[in-house]
Hints:
Rossmann fold, 4 helices, alpha/beta, 39% helix
Amino acid sequence: MAEGRFVAYYRVSTQAQGRSGLGLAAQQSAVRNYLDGGRWSLIAEYTEVESGKKNDRPKLAEAMRTAKRQKATLVIAKLDRLARSVAEQLAAIAPQMSRLARDAKRAAARPDR
């Protein structure tokens, strides 16, 4: 079960993705399913309609600033919503790595998982 404060980031490349499995509703559902059942608060949600090819993502930057400022965890439905390649994903999450590592270690220690 998720615990703590969270900031959600959703990205769709085109309006057409709204009808696919990577659509906004599917991402929102995945985030809520992850958070379901724990003691958590979703303090902000950011949605971006932008191609995965572009590195300039103002909503992602804003979501990461909010997460850092609020001492919250950035949550996304799938890594490919963050960036297309592993290198881009790592570059995007580098500022949050210490927090992600702590959260992963805590999650791995939970007996219910």
